[in-house]
Write a structure and sequence with these properties.
homotetramer, 346 residues, alpha/beta, Rossmann fold, Dihydrodipicolinate Reductase, domain 2, globular
């Protein structure tokens, strides 16, 4: 519980920006959202009106530079993240930024250096760390309930692929979708990944392949502490959002299932069944989004370390670049190779 | 979704009053809570302060009579419910009232007549009807997914008994605890109960028996449409709140399980296990409390019938009186007997 | 494991007689089935042929009196059980007899007295006691894993009613079907039942009502040790055999689910589901039938007490008579009433 | 159901040989086991005596050459399999042989050629294909219940590693343990694997590493039809045998869980839990062993194709060799490489 108040501005009034704004306004009483900015004025206006936010702008820098705003929530398009982080840090604002920071390591490093210099707090939007199921798995690992971890497995499937226009600019499956799983892998195991190997294909929609991306992937991970990991992705699970993990170790295993809208079990002449899982991230991760923005506010107000740092934002990008390189070259790739040569050979 | 605004007052700043006030303030943007009243001034003050409610009183009638208040939420002690309903109806306010309306049928009937005369809306606080699991069961019955219902079973166990001082004034297990299950029985089956038979005992705490109450009960129900029902109650389940139902019919069966804080499954050298269910009603029924107060606001703003009526508030009291009489006399009791002679023979 | 050999005869070559014969021949190497008798000669012949049983008769007494036969397995129709028990006891044979011993208490008592005099072993065919799920529940009660038991619940539903001709001679739901649940209740709680109360109806097939029986029932039980129990029966669950129990106590609860042909879980665009439970008792209780006949052989060969005694065979009949009387008279019935006046009044 | 009779001989009276002999004798009435051979005479004697098998030998060829024996069941050590297959084929006997046929491809090919020439039936002992859970998954794939398969995942963990002496001669994890999973992968997907990539380590017991083997592995598979697969192995799961699969496809997913000795769920003050899964393959795969030997008998008596052929026995060995090579060389390995150069480079 925070007891002091905090004034924030939100940049980007798309789905996720509106969600964060709403949580700040309705769920976290000690905060005040003073301004929302979006390049589409109508979007900013609509958000401001429905939530009672007093100021609106089409210029993100209006948020960054507003003297009464203490913290900014960056939900604009990925290509603007790094510049806005640098600007906000330069203005002495604390920063919550959606993932990924950027798709280029030098750009990320520039942004993180600015944050470092400004000594402001930076939290990256890996909301799944705040999900009750995954928290419980992490707790089991920390408490030693599964002994020494040996293997990790992450199932992560979306109910449907994004629009093909989005696919083209998203950075691809590994930097747009798997990036959440890369973060989850680091979070659950509590160690860094050293190498990845990717197998992938276009099984869901040929248009995704034509756009240069894949829609189905199996990525294996080798952690520095010897743990072996697997991530299984698909852009389309017809039964809805499929988000499960398992950590197996010397003392046992812990695994999670999907969350459902209800737990009613119906038996009739045909089968014993339940309704489909919660459909997508807005339903499944509702509570985790509230928890993460609450944690951000708490970190500032009570001067605690942000729970998902700039380093946490950078590492999954390295993993995503390595995963893509592994796929392109059909071989295991050490993350050190990406660090040494961040852009693909070519 | 409500689009118009509504101004409310809350009477009673105990746990449940604070909960309703909080949901109105934080979760339902179109509402405004203008005043909170409690006989304990400090309680009203604390609630007002934490939620930004402008007015406070120690007099419930100050809420009822405030000209700007359109609806009242009655969360004071049971013995005040009927009088406050009458007063609020007399003042033309819409009314949300916690269960039970009263423990005496003539008193209830007086209050309901006042509501009828005033043509205001009255909703009784049977929140479990708004729980996603039970909703799904009701939907299955309505949709015919289980065919014609034959039997109903309700498991309802609390994690621990209330303080013995509360037990003495609560009206006893059947009117304090089973009353929720009586409502659930009517809701799920969609028919009235004609007769009950109670077996019960003192198994949890002898002090409950010394106070003239029981702590463990099995109540069987015969519905007007022939359905047979069973309710199983205990004041103490060491594993936490146990709230499950099953409806069995000609076309199948539907049943619900408890809700859990997470779905992680841990396998170690001893067992395959999960954490305990959500501990009690504040955790288990969080969403249902939000849903019910939302439904109340919606009923007023959009002039729909209240989803849990005065009749719905009265019927479970009749069932509770009959259940107790059955226990006292060791025989099945028809509800018509209670209607004919509402006070126990003696 | 039995190490000595045992020679048996089987009386009755219907479904259950064939099953026992098959298990003795194929699963229990130390036994030899010397003769099978059935009033329908072809049935006896067919069983003998398929299992390699050397002798066949249409006269049950041929089995009872054969000098080389040490034990008889009585699977003929219920009305023959008591006489065959007396005859077998008189001939010094150990006896396995399907339930019920008889539907009349004096008849049962006569048979049990003969067994007592002859000092032979008698085991009654309550096979469900040998099911792994129910065994585990009993073990939990014995071990104190649920503390002191407070309530018991048994769900017992058949996939479909028997032929109406069978219904007419079966003794009715309570003596034909519920009798298994009465035995289970005594077994799980480890105490005697003092009183029952029955609610029941004809919901599955009017022809069952026309035959003077019911097809759906809820029977509540009061045990001598204060435990309260509920049994829920239906002659037709469209999803198959439904056999579940729960014991709740001061230290927790233990419950069982149905058994399934496989545990595969299928998620598609409509639901998350599994195949229907094992269809009926031949599938569900396969292992328990092997276990019970094995236990009978073991009791003889190693001279241990039979695990389900004559007393265990008699008590559920008393409960069944009381349950029917409760239904007929619409009131709770103490078992002592049935003992005092075993035949219905009137 | 077989209606004709078949006379068999069993070679090898170790655990698995005794199991097959017992099933043939006790569960499959139409068969006769005429002889059991084992290099340890006492082992052969004990098996013969307990099952009533008339003849015993210390010479496997005595079984192969016995004129009355129509089929042999080869359960001796792996290094003898290929020679015995050739001998049995030469003698015109049908052959059931435990996996693996051999660890060398030329040896395997020699044995399979002999079978081909003799036109006898050969079935390899991949018993898991006859497990009800995996059968259901295969059926779902064949029926199109999950649409077009995209990914496959197999979890396969033993409760404890074998003795280190066995590890040294077993062929290693990939040819001794993963070989079952390689077969399962081909069976479930219904396609051939083209390439594998192995990550593995020694996490369970350093002695296994000192013996040149690994005890933990993640093997990824690329099938000819584009499906991607993952196999996760451990030599020690402290909670017992862990055998689960999932097939995900365009139309949904199907997955299996472990099997348990009972399904009782115990809730107490600490957790909601169940007993550990069936401990190891003798408990978990009991029914599948009966089914597989039954299928072998059926294939001969009714002249159907053997359900697990010589090709099915060879392919997993290729995969195992490839998996090991991948581990040794830290790169994906195409199966064609192993075919081209069956022995490791060196």
């Amino acid at each position: 519980m925070t007891t002091q108040s905090l004034t924030l501005g939100v940049i980007g009034a798309g789905r996720i920006g509106r969600l964060h704004a709403q949580h700040l306004v309705q769920r976290i009483p000690q905060t005040r959202v003073l301004m929302v900015a979006d390049v589409v004025e109508a979007a900013a206006q609509a958000t401001a009106q429905s939530l009672g936010i007093p100021h609106v702008s089409t210029d993100p820098l209006a948020v960054v530079q507003h003297p009464n705003i203490q913290a900014v929530v960056i939900c604009s398009s990925t290509d603007t993240h790094a510049d806005l982080i640098e600007a906000a840090a330069g203005a002495g604002k604390h920063i919550f930024c959606e993932k990924p920071i950027a798709l280029s390591l030098p750009t990320i490093d520039g942004a993180l250096a600015a944050v470092e210099r400004a000594r402001v707090k930076l939290q990256i939007g890996f909301n799944r760390r705040f999900d009750a199921n995954f928290r419980r798995v992490r707790q089991a690992v920390v408490n030693g309930e599964v002994g020494q971890p040996h293997t990790l497995r992450i199932i992560s499937r979306d109910p449907a692929p994004p629009p093909i226009e989005y696919v083209k600019v998203s950075g691809g499956l590994f930097l747009d979708m798997t990036i959440h799983d890369f973060d989850m892998a680091r979070y659950l195991v509590g160690a860094e990944v050293e190498a990845v190997y990717t197998q992938a294909g276009v099984m869901v929609d040929p248009a995704i392949g034509e756009a240069g991306d894949v829609d189905t992937a199996v990525v294996t991970l080798r952690f520095a502490n010897g743990v072996l990991g697997t991530i299984e992705n698909s852009r389309r699970a017809v039964y809805g959002y499929d988000q499960r993990v398992e950590v197996f170790g010397s003392g046992g295993a812990i695994r999670t299932d999907n969350d459902y809208p209800n737990n009613a079990l119906l038996s009739d002449a045909h089968s014993v069944r339940r309704d489909l899982p919660l459909h997508f991230f807005m339903e499944r991760y509702t509570a985790s989004f509230v928890n993460e923005i609450n944690a951000f506010v708490d970190a500032i107000v009570n001067d605690r370390p942000a729970p998902v740092t700039g380093v946490d934002g950078r590492a999954p990008v390295v993993m995503g670049l390595a995963a893509r390189r592994s796929y392109d070259e059909g071989r295991p790739v050490r993350l050190a190779e990406v660090e040494a040569q961040p852009t693909p050979r070519g």
